[in-house]
Structures are given as structure tokens and as C-alpha cells.
Design goal:
The chain is α+β, with helices and mostly antiparallel strands. It has three domains: 2-136 and 346-473, no CATH class; 160-207, no CATH class; 212-332, Sandwich (Jelly Rolls), CATH 2.60.120. 55% of the residues lie in helices and 13% in strands. The chain contains 15 helices and eleven strands. It is globular, with a radius of gyration of 28 Å.
Length: 481
């Protein structure tokens, strides 16, 4: 262990001495210091802090990733090319200890630089909090929508599977199903299962929709929030409409809370009359005491324009739907911003630890330029793997829609090879906490644990094991410069 630590200590000193490391450190300092002066967001204090957090953390992650690639590839490859490695391996140190020491040194250097940048970013956020806000609503928005950790709850749904089965039985009794819907051995065939799934999807969409001049109630459960504490919860929604209203403005109302609930702390529901642009996300701020003692929240959506109460002829009539993913949810506070911020930094560190292992692996058998090229290809694919996988699924599901595009048709044909490549490349895009942190959403310990397990443990171990195996069998005297 002492030999690994000695190599790691030497790697840290080497990284600090290298001019490229100094350049990256200076760039980090300049970015953290300059962003508040040039980024103003939407003009609100909340928007300014969100913009600063997003760009500063994003720039930090990218710069440290590039620094990790250059250091991990340059250290081993340069010592091989310059033959300084002979001085190391001639000592009583195993080759695997040499590589692990290099990786450990880079990981420690990444942790130190990330910690420094993290402290600087947090200090700047603390400073921005003290600057002037537009109004009290802007101040509360920063406190309860950004500098917090909120969990998301979707409305509790009925048992649509049972309802779909009941409707299938009715169609069967009425002899309205095709013969191909029945399996020879009883039950439903593949056609019958498809019909059943369509019925289930239709029932779900109907339940998440409200007809013109109609009312729809939704119940949110298991909200572990103390209603005795002063605070806000947030109803977040995006309305899809069947007919666009004048000026794309939907006028509706939300009635929130159930005063009839045992132990309810409100004497009447909260009413929020809205005039919102359709197909955009909007927030309704709700006092926390609207949550019942049993952790439930009743929300009623009224698809009416209360300006013309009783005069339905003057109202614009359209169906409203919240059937999209994330179109209707309640966000409530479950933790502090500081803990959320720390977990986000640790998740970024897990990415850097893995990238350092990939760099050591590449430099164990490639020259410096080729190793850098390989690492950059892996890094760019890893951070966009989610988008690439979604694009491949879309191409495979609708190949006929791309008949006129040769490149897209070729992508469909290469789907198996591309899928294998994306499976081998680390899924860094699945562990990107920046968007959730900026939006005040919880970066959970479970999510961090999965990142530490798969990125920092499993995939890092595989990369380092491959590097040690290759390096052990390599003839060091035969170096391609």
C-alpha cells in the first residue's frame, strides 16, 4: 500500500507542476468569479442564481474532465515515451501498483480541485443571496424552488388494469372483439393483449384530462412534510389543450386542500385563479398547511373561466390534459440545499474517478495523442448516451419515417453494433445531478449510491483491471513515440 501511496503522491506533485494543470486551475477561478457578473438569467434573483449554478457547475465538470483526460493520458504515456518509467519499474514495485498509484493520484487531485471549486461556487451563491430581489415572491422562489431539496409526487392513479379487464369482458359479452383476440388455449392472444393495453392507455388519458367546463380531482399521497412548519409546496403542471384559446392563454382555477380531513389545519381550500400560456410549465405556490396530517393533498382542477361565473357562453371551451410525463406533480421540501449540493459534487467526482481509470487504460497501450482521442470519444459518448439511446429507439420504432434519409437509414442498420458500443461506454448521462440541483430537486443518497457503485466501483475496477492486465504483458522497451 505504501508503494501505491508513493506513486500517488508523486502523481499529485507532477500534476501540480504541469503547466496544463495550472491553466485549468486558472480557468476554474476565472469562471467562478466572472459568471455572476455576466450571467443574469431572466432578471430575477432566482433566475440569476439558477443560471450561475448551472453554468459554473457545468463548466467545472467539463474542465476537470478534460484535465483528467490529459493528466491520465500524459503521465503514463510520457514516462513510457521518455523511458523514465525504467527508474520506477526497476524498483520493487509491481506494474499494477504503478498504475493504481497513478489513478489514485489523479483521483485525489480531482477531489481537491473539485472541493476548491465547490467551495468557491457555494460562497458565490451565498453572496448572490444577499443581493437585492425584485419582490418577496422572488425571494421566496429562490428559497423554496432553488436553495432546497424537493421530492416529487405524482397523483395517485386508479387501477386501470382492472378497469381494462372489465371492459374487455364487456366487449367479449357483446361479441365486439375480433376472433384473433382470443388465444386457442384460453385467455387473450397477442392481438387481445394489444387491445387491452390500448384500452388501459385510453382510460389513463381520460383520467388525466378534464372536459370543457368540467372539474377533475387528483389526490397526492405519502407526502412526508410537517404541516406545522412554515413553508411552501409547489404544484407544477403543463396544460395540453384540444383547442387553442385566444392569445394561447388558458384561464382556469386550482382549488387546493381538503378542510373536511380529520385534523385539517385549513378552514377552506386555497383558491388560485390562473391565466397561463398553454404547453408551458407553470408553478402554483401553496402553503404547507394544505397537506393533511396523513400526508395527502387534494387538488381540484376547474376548467372554467371564473371571470364569467355562470355565463358559460362567454367562456372558451377546450379539453385540458395533463397526460404527459411530468405534466402534473407536487414538489415538497425534504432536505437542505447544502446536503443536496454535497451529493451533487460527490456524483461529479464519481464521474471523474471513472474517467481517470479510462485514461490510465488508454495510456497503458496507446501513445499520448491516440489515448487522448480515445478518451475524448468515450467521454463525449458517455455524456450523450441517454440522447443517443433514445434516438436509436425512435429510429428502430419508426424506420419507415426516415426512408428518404440515407444517414438515418444507415443508423437503423447499425443499431446492433451501436447498442453494444453504448452498453460498453459508461452511462455518465444517467448520473448528471446539475439539472436537478438547479431546479431544487432532491439528489438522493440512493442515486448517489448507484453512481458510486457503477461508476466509481464496478466500471472503474473493470477499466483498471484491463489496464493492469495489458500493462503487465507489455514490453516496455518497445515504445512507439
Amino acid at each position: 500500500m505504501s508503494r501505491i501511496v508513493a506513486v500517488a503522491r508523486n502523481m499529485i506533485a507532477e500534476g501540480i507542476r504541469m503547466k496544463i494543470a495550472v491553466i485549468f486551475i486558472v480557468m476554474l477561478v476565472v469562471i467562478v468569479a466572472a459568471l455572476p457578473a455576466i450571467m443574469h438569467g431572466d432578471g430575477t434573483l432566482r433566475g440569476r442564481v439558477q443560471t450561475f449554478l448551472a453554468y459554473s457547475l457545468g463548466a467545472t465538470a467539463v474542465l476537470l474532465s478534460l484535465l483528467t483526460v490529459f493528466l491520465s493520458c500524459a503521465s503514463v504515456a510520457a514516462e513510457l515515451a521518455g523511458r523514465q518509467i525504467f527508474l520506477t519499474v526497476s524498483k520493487p514495485i509491481a506494474r499494477w501498483q504503478y498504475l493504481v498509484g497513478k489513478w489514485l493520484g489523479i483521483a485525489i487531485l480531482d477531489a481537491l480541485l473539485l472541493a476548491g471549486a465547490g467551495v468557491g461556487i457555494y460562497a458565490m451563491v451565498a453572496y448572490l443571496k444577499t443581493t437585492a430581489w425584485l419582490n418577496e415572491q422572488d425571494r421566496d422562489a429562490l428559497r423554496y424552488e432553488v436553495l432546497t431539496a424537493r421530492a416529487s409526487v405524482r397523483p395517485s392513479t386508479p387501477d386501470f388494469a382492472a378497469r381494462a379487464d372489465a371492459q374487455m369482458e364487456r366487449l367479449k359479452e357483446q361479441d365486439r372483439l375480433p376472433q384473433s383476440a382470443f388465444a386457442p388455449t384460453g385467455g387473450w392472444s397477442q392481438v387481445g393483449q394489444t387491445i387491452r393495453q390500448r384500452i388501459r392507455d385510453d382510460l389513463s388519458k381520460q383520467w388525466m384530462s378534464c372536459p370543457p367546463l368540467g372539474v377533475r380531482e387528483y389526490r397526492f399521497e405519502n407526502m412526508h412534510f410537517d404541516p406545522n412548519e412554515a413553508g411552501l409546496i409547489h404544484l407544477r403542471y403543463k396544460a395540453q389543450v384540444s383547442r387553442y384559446p385566444p392569445d394561447d392563454i388558458l384561464r382556469c382555477a386550482w382549488v387546493i386542500g381538503d378542510p373536511t380531513k380529520d385534523g385539517a389545519r385549513i378552514s377552506r381550500p386555497y383558491l388560485s385563479e390562473r391565466a397561463d400560456v398553454v404547453r408551458q410549465y407553470h408553478i402554483v405556490r401553496i402553503p404547507a398547511d394544505a397537506i393533511a396530517p396523513d400526508g395527502t393533498l387534494l387538488v381540484r382542477f376547474e376548467n372554467v373561466d371564473r371571470r364569467y361565473s355562470g355565463d358559460f357562453d362567454k367562456m372558451h371551451r377546450t379539453s385540458v390534459s395533463f397526460s404527459g410525463q411530468g405534466d402534473l406533480e407536487v414538489l415538497y421540501e425534504v432536505g437542505s440545499f447544502e446536503a443536496n449540493y454535497l451529493r451533487s459534487l460527490l456524483m461529479i467526482l464519481a464521474q471523474l474517478v471513472l474517467l481517470a481509470a479510462v485514461g490510465v487504460l488508454a495510456s497503458s497501450f496507446l501513445s499520448f495523442p491516440v489515448a487522448c482521442l480515445m478518451c475524448m470519444m468515450v467521454y463525449l459518448t458517455a455524456i450523450s448516451s441517454g440522447f443517443l439511446q433514445e434516438a436509436i429507439r425512435e429510429l428502430a420504432a419508426n424506420p419507415s419515417a426516415f426512408e428518404g434519409d440515407l444517414a438515418l437509414r444507415l443508423a437503423v442498420l447499425l443499431k446492433p453494433a451501436t447498442t453494444v458500443f453504448l452498453w460498453v461506454v459508461p452511462q455518465i448521462s444517467a448520473y448528471n445531478p446539475i439539472n436537478d440541483l438547479v431546479d431544487g430537486r432532491l439528489v438522493s443518497w440512493a442515486w448517489l449510491g448507484r453512481a458510486a457503485l457503477w461508476l466509481g466501483a464496478v466500471q472503474t475496477t473493470v477499466a483498471m483491471a484491463a489496464a493492469c492486465l495489458i500493462f503487465r504483458r507489455r514490453e516496455l522497451a518497445q515504445v512507439i513515440v
